[in-house]
Design a protein that fits this description.
Layout lengths: L6 H5 L5 H4 L1 E3 L2 E6 L2 E8 L2 E5 L3 H7 L6 H9 L3 H9 L10 H10 L5 H11 L8 H4 L12 H12 L12 H8 L7 H11 L10 H11 L4 H12 L3 H12 L7
The protein binds a DNA duplex (13 and 12 nucleotides) through α7, α9, α11 and α12.
Length: 255
DNA sequence: TTCCAGGGTGAGT
DNA sequence: ACTCACCATGGA
């Protein structure tokens, strides 16, 4: 299908796909259900195999109007304009909430290559086992360090609640509910809301975003950063965050 | 050897 | 509400 997207940027920008999907040449794949789903891009043409178009459109958020989003977040913002120019076609992805939560508990004070290794060690048949299963599973071989206790405790709680219902709440309320879980603070909660539940107004502040906000906008406190983001980029704070991240993140910096 | 990584928790103010 | 040591692992 034709789609406005830069698949490589989208799949390799520190979002959940970087932890769950594999790369073979120019093709990305992962096991979904009983089949292996492949994604690749040739020019404007987005190809998929082993999964249906509906899944691809939801996963890559192809219904997001990039022109509208770009117009909103770049208004009166030269930094964002530059980031958009450099990373055209980068999209926020929509991932399974539980898998997203697991990945971002693994992300605590960790780096992307090792988060990926941790997540891959937790996969069973290509998926993260459901909470009730993970709660009693052997986790030490994944070498999560101090995160293992967080993950097990959260899995045990979720085994007894309707996790999906959080996605029906408003942003602030959903955020408060997530932060009741062990290993879920402001940053992890916002990542789960953005990449798992699809709240584009979520604005995760990690060390890189904090650096960017200080360097480009002179803001030093996280609370101020979140207020600034809402005032300037609402309701697309999540997109603004991802483009900012690319400017300063490990693979985003150049020369 | 020291510093750092898509931070959270708990204890101290 | 804010600060800060500590947390386990592995790469640079």
């Amino acid at each position: 299908m034709r789609a406005r997207i830069n698949l490589r940027l989208t799949m390799e920008s520190g979002q959940p796909p970087e932890f769950f999907w594999n790369k073979e040449g120019e093709r990305y794949w992962r096991e979904l259900g009983k089949s292996r789903c492949y994604l690749w891009q040739e020019g404007e043409e987005l190809h998929y195999l082993g999964c249906d178009e509906g899944y691809v459109r939801e996963f890559l958020r192809l219904e997001d109007d990039l022109e509208e989003i770009y117009a909103v977040i770049s208004a009166g913002d030269e930094v964002m304009e530059r980031a958009i120019g450099r990373f055209q076609g980068l999209r926020i992805t929509k991932n399974d909430p539980w898998e997203t939560l697991v990945a971002f508990i693994c992300s605590i004070n960790n780096n992307i290559p090792r988060i990926r290794r941790n997540v891959q060690c937790l996969l069973r048949g290509g998926r993260i086992p459901p909470p009730e299963e993970l709660a009693g599973a052997e986790l030490s071989s994944a070498r999560l360090g101090f995160r293992e206790g967080y993950l097990r405790a959260t899995a045990a709680v979720l085994a007894r609640m309707d996790f999906h219902a959080i996605g029906e709440l408003g942003y602030e309320e959903a955020r408060q509910e997530l932060m009741k879980l062990r290993g879920v603070g402001e940053k992890v909660a916002d990542c789960v809301l953005l990449f798992g539940f699809g709240y584009l107004e979520a604005f995760p502040v990690d060390v890189w975003i904090a650096r960017a906000m200080r360097a480009y906008y002179g803001i030093t406190s996280v609370k101020e950063m979140r207020r600034f983001a809402r005032e300037r980029w609402h309701p697309y704070e999540g997109y603004a965050q991802q483009y900012l991240y690319m400017l300063v993140g490990r693979r985003g910096r150049r020369g």
